[in-house]
Each structure stands twice: as C-alpha cells, then as structure tokens.
Write a structure and sequence with these properties.
about 475 residues; alpha+beta; Archaeosine Trna-guanine Transglycosylase, Chain: A, domain 4; Pseudouridine synthase; 10-stranded mixed sheet; 7-stranded mixed sheet; 17 strands; about 35% helix; about 20% strand; globular
C-alpha cells in the first residue's frame, strides 16, 4: 500500500529532451566555430572522404592556400615586400591587401597562390591606423581643442590623394567611422590618435585637414596600420625575418611547424562573412561555377539578406567560394526549390571533390528523354515532349517571362541595297564576340547595389551629354570658318 502511495506522488510524465547531446563548437577553428549555432536545413548527406580541414592540409597545399599577417617594416614599398616573400617561399603568386606607403609600418596581409583570389575582397575591407601628427604651432585651446577637431572629422569626408601618391589626384569621398585621441603634447606640438576608416582613406590628407581646421597647419609624422580587414596586430603578426627563418628550418631540418605557425589558412580572412554549408556532393558543381540550389544546402547562418556577400563552405570547414545570396534566411527555411546563392569568386580548386551532378532522378529522366528524342540535344522541349514534363519541370536557366526582349538595332537603308555576301564563319565569329562582350559586362556589374547602378547610369548619361556637346561645338566652329 505504501508503495502505491509513493508511486502516486512521483511525476512519471515523459519530458521532451534532445535526442543527441549538443556538441560544444565554440573552440572549433576558423569557419567551423559555433557550427552548432547555424540553422539546419537538413541533416542528411553522404560524406565524401575527399578534402580535409584547413589546418590538416599537407604542407604544399597549406602554403599555396595560405595568408601571412606581415608586420611591414619601414622604407621598402608594399610591392617589394610581397616580391621578397614570393622569393623566400618559392611560390608562383603573391598579393597584398592594400598598399602601404614605404615609410608606413604595420599590418600587411600577404596572400599566396590560391589565396590571391581573396585580395580584391580584402583591399575593400575596413582599416585601422595609429598616427603621430605634428602641428606647426601651439594650440591655444590645448588637448580639448584638438579632440574636438578630431571628432569633427568623422563621417563622410572629401579627400584628394596627396602629391606623393602614385594615383590619379581625383576628389573622392571616404568615410571615417571612429577616432580616438591617445596622447597630446602641446609644447612639442605632437599628437597621437587612432582612427577606424574605409579602405582608400588617406591619413596624410586627414592630418593636413586637421591642421587647417585648427588654424595652425599640420602634417603626418608617423603612421602604423593596426588592422586590415579580419587581421590585426594581435592575430599572429610576423616579420620578414620570421618567414625567412621558418623556410630555413623547413629546408635544413625538415621541421614544418614554424612555417605552419607563420602562415595561416585563407579561411582566416573569411571568418567575418555569413556562412552557408554545402553538401559534399554539390561542392564540385559550385567549383565549376554552378549556382547553389536548395537541395545542396545543409546549414546556413541567421540574418542573411538578399544580395549579401556570403561564404560557401564544406562540412570540413573549407571555403569553396564567395557568393551573392539570392534568398534571405526566412526564404531559406521555407522554400523547397530555387537558387540559394550565385558564385562571385571561386576559391577551391576544381575536382578536389568528385563530380556528382547529373545523377539525380530528374537529371537521369532528362538524359533518357534526350536519348529517346523527346527533348532536343540541349534538353529543350520539342514536339514529342510530354505535356506533364512541360508543366512540372522548372528550368532555372531559362529567361524570365516578364523580361523584355533584347532591342533590335535598325539597319540603315544603304546597307540593305548592298549585295549580301554569305560567310557563315564570319557570322559565327561576330555572334561569339558579341556574346563574350555581353557576358563580360554582366560579370563586371554582377552583385552591384541599386545605388551603384543608378550612379553608373548617371555617369554614363553625363559622358554622352558631354560628347554630344563637344560634337555640337565642333560643328559650330566649322560653320563659322566657312
């Protein structure tokens, strides 16, 4: 009886619980950090043994897809430093994340071989500097006056490159995000400040503007870059001597641990991007330039917006490509078909993973229909195509129904009277050239925002008007001379 009473008192309800214990991925390296926090589209995929985690690549692959967070010394130019690194490591290609003037020191990201594909994205990333400014006279307001002037010069500013720079001296707008005054000595006319700014900002010009604003004049005394994109002074910064010593250790003692410490995997630069995890079977298709579709998606980050730049990665944490998201996080969780992302810049080598496209049920059916003559050789419908296929099959490469047809150029009447010369080869060449030009233009303007497009159109219009004005002037001058 007592046992029955005891059983009544205990609550035997089955409580909901996680089937599998959650894995703590907060200490996992690079792109796999906090992997368990990513939203799951599906957990089912066939792992392929090809590829490996970035830190376990063999030395040759590790170097050829590596980056160096280099502390640039004063006096040599950025190009000289990069050329020296290329010669030390005996590699094919090297590139850097944005030029530093010869006298400037600090963070210079050197990309090696495959990693040079990320140079463009790193050159456009934000930068941080610590600057020593020399004023030409004592300030009556002292440190407070200097701090106020520094705070005034934040936000969007007009800048013209200094005379010393080897670029076209055109007026441009650059943004200063934040600045802090570290130290100020009014007697010695010196100040030290930190500034976080957009890529392409001239700190030398900023110092001149500060001098003008304070009314005493000023120039830049010293400059050091403390952050460039994802890399800063605290993240394993190395000197040229470290690189040389690491290569010497590998050559003479076969100890590669120093080289692995000096060089970091290219994935280090991509940790700030939103992540999209791709199934192993879809990796090689993306490497060949295919768009990532919903069936190839495994996991994705929260907060992805349409047309945002994302990184496509494998389940082992390797970067496949930089892409432009075609769906937001909300759409990714609800849609059952469609394009997830378009490839902007492919990073991974082709055929590292096996080819697995064309093996799905729809692809096999399409292949069979082409063999039976129910589709033409390009997979397009013909007279023999079943009605069911036309209604159910969705071709993502077909032009949109709402899109306007291409404008047809008017043929002058004089051209119509000339005798036609049949030359199929010439026609083929012309069509190939025109298609190539169209593709080139499309690629050049891919991923641009609505504001950038409007600005480009406006500049084009201005150019045309200028040209027309010039031609009109010429006609007037010729009339006057007559």
């Amino acid at each position: 009886m007592a046992m029955v009473v005891a059983q009544k008192e205990i609550d035997y309800t089955i409580k909901p619980e996680a089937v599998t214990p959650t894995v703590d991925t907060s200490s996992w390296p690079l792109l796999l950090k906090n992997y368990n926090n990513l939203l799951v589209r599906t957990g089912h995929f066939t792992p392929i043994p090809n590829g490996c985690t970035p830190l376990k690549r063999d030395l040759k692959s590790y170097i050829s897809s590596g980056v160096i967070n280099l502390d640039k010394p004063s006096n040599p130019s950025s190009h000289e430093v990069v050329a020296w690194v290329k010669r030390m490591l005996r590699v094919e290609k090297t590139g850097h994340s944005g030029t530093l003037d010869p006298k400037v020191t600090g963070c210079l990201i050197v990309c090696i071989d495959r990693a040079t594909r990320l140079v463009k994205s790193q050159q456009g990333a934000g930068k941080e500097y610590v600057c020593v400014i020399r004023l030409h006279d004592k300030l009556p307001g002292g440190e407070a006056q200097f701090a106020r002037a520094l705070e005034t010069l934040t936000g969007a500013l007009f800048q013209r490159p200094p005379l010393i720079s080897a670029v076209k001296r055109q007026l441009r707008i650059r943004t200063i995000h934040e600045s802090k005054l570290y130290e100020f000595d009014n007697d010695r006319h010196l100040g030290v400040f930190w500034v976080s700014c957009e890529a392409g900002t001239y700190i030398r010009t900023l110092c001149v503007h500060l001098g003008l604003l304070l009314g005493v004049g000023a120039h830049m005394q010293e400059l050091r870059r403390v952050r460039s994109g994802a890399m800063d002074e605290t993240k394993d910064m190395v000197t040229l001597h470290d690189v040389l010593d690491a290569q010497w250790m590998q050559d003479n003692t076969r100890d590669e641990s120093y080289l692995r410490r000096v060089i970091a995997p290219l994935e280090t630069l991509l940790t700030t991007y939103k992540r999209i995890v791709v199934k192993d079977s879809a990796v090689n298709a993306v490497c060949y330039g295919a768009k990532l579709m919903i069936p190839g998606l495994l996991r994705y980050e929260a907060g992805i917006e349409v047309h945002e730049e994302v990184v496509l990665m494998t389940t082992k944490g390797e970067a496949i490509a930089l892409g432009i998201a075609q769906m937001s996080t909300v759409e990714l969780s609800t849609c059952d078909h469609g394009v997830v992302a378009k490839v902007k810049r492919c990073i991974m080598e082709r055929d590292l993973y096996p080819r697995r496209w064309g093996l799905g049920p729809v692809a096999l059916e399409k292949k069979k229909m082409k063999a039976d003559g129910k589709l033409d050789k390009y997979g397009r419908p013909n007279e023999a195509t079943p009605a069911k296929w036309n209604t159910e099959y969705k071709d993502f490469n077909a032009p949109l129904e709402g899109s306007a047809p291409a404008p047809v150029a008017e043929i002058p009447s004089s051209a119509l009277t000339l005798p036609a010369i049949e030359s199929p080869e010439a026609d083929a060449d012309v069509s190939m050239v025109s298609n190539g030009v169209k593709d080139k233009k499309r690629k050049r303007h891919e991923g641009e925002t609505a504001e950038e497009k409007a600005e480009r159109k406006r500049k084009k219009k201005e150019k045309k008007e200028k040209k027309a004005k010039k031609e009109g002037k010429k006609v007037e001058e010729s009339d006057d001379s007559e």
